[in-house]
Amino acid sequence: MIVNDNDNLYYDAKDIKGIASRYTNNPELGDGYVGENEKIQGYSVGLDFTMSTQHMFGIPERSNTLSLNVTHYDKPYRLFNQDKAPHFGDNSAEYGSVPYIMGHSAELDESVAWMNSAETFVFINEAHAGERLNAAFISEGNALEFYLLASQGAPKKLQKKLSELTGYVAMPPIHSLGFHFSKWENVTATDIVTRSHDFDHHNYPVDVFWFDIEYSQKKQYTEFDYQNFNQKDVMLMNDVIAHAKRRFVVIVDPHIRASEEFHVYNEGLEKQHRVQKQGDIENIFVRDPAGKDPWVGNCWPGESVWFDFLNENAAQWWGDLLHPSTFIGTNYLYGIWNDMNEPSVFKSGSLEEIEQLGMPMNNTHILKDGSLVQHRWVHNAYGALQQRATWNGLHKRDKGQQRPFVLSRSFFFGSQRYGAIWTGDNTASYDDVPLALNSILADGIAGIVFAGADVPGFNKVPDDDIFVQFYQLAAYFPFFRAHAGKFN
Asked: Where in the sequence numbering do the catalytic residues fall?
């Protein structure tokens, strides 16, 4: 491998004024005061790598061919986690990002792990008269950090080295390897009991039942709907599912309903606004660009705030919220589904207008030690940080006595240590069947092996042939879940 073969080493430093480099909790100046003379350096970094191969793979997530194509200089692969559906089969960004690229030939396998969680573009072009391929990375910010890996004629050895670098796949709980049944729909605890009996009656195997956002009270995750999931019905549902030796997974998204009716919002503000101990800052919610107030956007509950998983105290409290003493009605049977964690932000909170805008890149994260970090520099790791916090919370809930199960839509390096991922809102179409397979294989090359797709497609109603074809293929996916949209 040749580093900087095309002289693409790039570092462009800029001063961004008006953003404090450290959180200030000064009663005279106000919470999160931003000093006039404070500033943070903003920059972009880039470097290219020429490999001894004509075949490259990796850099998920993308709905395209498994083998990476030559991009020339105008159609690069983009790594920027975003809520994007449907899948178009092009080089555009999707829900997760792993900036890892592998070159394969009969004699040698080599790869680059580009450790950068900011928005990243990857250009692939022919080099050395077409005998090799060159991959050029450029990212918006962060340190220039990368690792070069290689093995001679043994791709498995290269995968082992990647696992040693970013972490081995967690051993999944055995029920998570079975068949999962999910549907975005209005449902009650009584419906789940009936559904479990129906699966038994038809002698159809199922291991896990899932709850999408409609289980919650006004989209206040960690609260069951008071009417459809009253405590008496929930306790009966839990007993029936436990007796059937099945499990649940319930959705808990990173956006929190910004309402005084919701205890998580109230308690989070109380923790965030009280006088902080130096070096032990509790910043529960991501702040606005000035670093003063929680940033408010729109998602399923309407006006919402987002957890700051970069803050250790916020991440720990998030995990504590999953305990049955807080999430009333749950117990060891419940795994967690982290969705909308790119993070996804709507233009409005209505179902009629859910255009995805995303969080402003200059929003502010505050670390435990008081350091301020712009969202742009950690954007692609946000979902992975939520999945880690969730996994830690379940592990603590169960006192380390069982393996947690966490599904995340967004992911980054290391996500394989904390559970499964899936390809997001696909479509019940002939095109999406091979796209799902290519996407899952690309995830695996980058170390994210516990992956699957919505079967037989989240959007649209499948015809009989698509239905059968998708199930036949998905039975071999590491993660096998039936899931469909509310109106399909």
From this structure: 339, 425
